[in-house]
Amino acid sequence: MILITVVLGVLVVLPLWTSHYIISTCIFIGIYGMAALGVSVLMGYAGQVNLGSNAFMLTGAYISAVLSVDLGVSPWLGTLCAAFVTAVIAYLIGKAILWLHGFILAVATACFAVVMYRLACELEITRGVYGLMEIPHYSIGGFVLDKEIHYYYLVLMVLLFLSIITSNLIRSRVGCGFTALNLFHGGSEVASESVGINVAKLKVHAFVLSAVYGSVGGSIYAHYTTCLTPQPFNLWWGLVLIMMCTIGGMRSVLGPIIGSTIYIALKEVLRITPSGTLAGFETFAFGLLFTLSLIFMPHGIIELPSLVGQSLKKFYKTR
Amino acid sequence: MAEQVNRFYLECKNVTKNFGGVCAVDKLTFNISKGELLGIIGPNGSGKTTLLNLITGVSALSRGEIWFKGKKLNGLLAHQICKLGISRTFQDLQIFNDLSVIDNLMVSCWKEHVSNMLEIMLRLPRARKEQEKAYVRSMEILRVLSMDEKASAMPLNLPFKERKLVGIGRALVSNPELLLLDEPGGGLSVGELEELSEVIVRLHDQGVTILFIEHRMEIVRNISDRVIVLCFGQKLSEGTFDEIQKDEKVISAYLG
After folding, report:
1. A14, A23, A156, B1: which sits with the fewest CB atoms below 10 Å from its CB?
2. Could you tell me the CATH superfamily of domain B1-85+176-256?
3. Sequence-separated (6 or more) residues with CB below 8 Å from residue A154
4. Which CATH number covers residue A38?
């Protein structure tokens, strides 16, 4: 608790003494952290494989952007509408595919992501691959949030809110219900049904929740960057979100945010190497990190303190 | 029909289950009265667990009808049947291993909850109250089972008998009117079996109607009011333990 308070304190004062570049990097960490948190709820807790989380980001980003560019809707209202529409889409898709398991479910979710991506590339309303330009920033009254620092605090607040409500959810009966039906974590769908859990409904709930998190992240992305093309939401990003969660810790609230930090930081570090020799190697580097994490820390970096503690205990015992 | 339905707590009529060409349960008809402790025995593959799966909605009936307190169970899903007051344990336990003992029980209070996802995420008063109520109820059940000191333990760290008790606790916490136990004595030592028998009798004395499947004859003899013997999915015999023990068909098919 003390550690979390200290980290929060540092995050609050960070923009006061750091560069725009760092603040901008932190904003992207937060945005992908939101979507990764959704992945953690669906995959980590409820155990439902989803390779297409990027599709929810894409849906949220485009709906909010189209509403504000074409119809002049307030970006705040656009973000809410986007979350609602994404939730409805997730509900319908979830109803249709969540009776599937494992590999087949993974393929179905990947197909959904590809369809959404192609729609964004082909539709006139999304301006195809050229994308949407001049997407308005959020504003409060007449005050336009058009600076990095504004988005930094917006993202920080939204991420904090999502982390708190996710944490509440995980500690509740619904969180226990997610674990109860999670076949990868000692769960059983038959036993869950037998104790009164409507498994099909609970899976759809997890899917919808994950979609809303992704949608909110996508909407903020659109209004922050003010231009939107389908490229940042291709299938690769669905995998990246899963890798973020796995590296940070799939079954924790902090894990996905840590994973997002590692990915974005790694990407930036490689990008700013002298003469950019390592730029573009982030796929390789992150893939390697993902593999190493699966081998040495399958529960993610979040378990590092307990692993170190255990090793120290063992070390002192043998001495 | 209505009169007949109301007379019995659970009524199975011509219950049949086919798996492809194999008939696991074949036109089985029996009933349970309120407060009864019914034992079902039979050799391996006689359709005992399949019968439990059919009653609890885990498997769908091929033919026949199952009625509980005047309500037809055909076509209902397992969670809907649980809400009607039927709980069960599993032969292979199926405990939620990543949840602590208390969480295993608390998650099983599901049918009592009415708060929605938003209330839970924002920890609104109704959701908090329900969570507290579920905790109190779960601790009560753990005390009945003398497991309250193990509330925060993880199931995989417990001995087999205690894991069995977690399974029974999980079934009890939803306040069932009919409790179905699938081989509760399996894998237990003689001493543990006696302790478990005491627990089952205590629950029965508290008014819970119990149907249990068992291979261990000592527990069947000691606690059941009535016994049904199954063989190849059909009812071979029915009566008190002393009666079925003397039945020639049962002796040749099962007891030996």
Report:
1. B1
2. P-loop containing nucleotide triphosphate hydrolases (3.40.50.300)
3. A138, A145, A220
4. 1.10.3470
* Residue A192 domain-assigned (yes or no): yes
For chain A, percent of residues with pLDDT exceeding 70: 99
Q: What's the structural domain count of chain A?
A: 1
A29 is in which domain, residue-wise? 20-318
What would the pLDDT profile of A149-173 be if each residue is shown by its tens digit?
A: 999 999 999 999 999 999 999 999 9
pLDDT tens readout for residues A35-84? 999 999 999 999 999 999 999 999 999 999 999 999 999 999 999 999 99
Q: What is the pLDDT of residues A226-255, one digit of tens each?
A: 999 999 899 999 999 999 999 999 999 999
DSSP labels for chain A? -HHHHHHHHHHHHHHHHS-HHHHHHHHHHHHHHHHHHHHIIIIIIS----S-HHHHHHHHHHHHHHHHHHS---HHHHHHHHHHHHHHHHHHHHHHHTT--HHHHHHHHHHHHHHHHHHHHH-TTTTGGG-B--PPPPEETTEE--SHHHHHHHHHHHHHHHHHHHHHHHTSHHHHHHHHH-GGGT--HHHHHHTT--HHHHHHHHHHHHHHHHHHHHHHHHHHHS-B-SGGGSHHHHHHHHHHHHHH-TTSSHHHHHHHHHHHHHHHHHHTSGGGTTTTTHHHHHHHHHHHHHHH-TT-GGGHHHHHHHHHHHHHHH-
Considering only CB atoms, A168 lies closest to which of B95, B107, B123, namely B123
User: Which one of A194, A198, A202, A216 makes the best mutation probe of the B interface by having the most chain B beta carbons within 10 Å?
Assistant: A194
Q: Is residue A218 part of a domain?
A: yes
Gap from A57 CA to chain B (nearest CA, Å):
21
Q: State whether B77 and A173 contact (CB < 8 Å).
A: no
Q: CB of A197 within 8 Å of any CB in chain B?
A: yes
Q: What percent of chain A has pLDDT over 90?
A: 75
Predicted confidence (pLDDT) per residue in B50-90, tens digit: 999 999 999 999 999 999 999 999 999 999 999 999 999 99
Q: What is the mean pLDDT of chain B?
A: 90
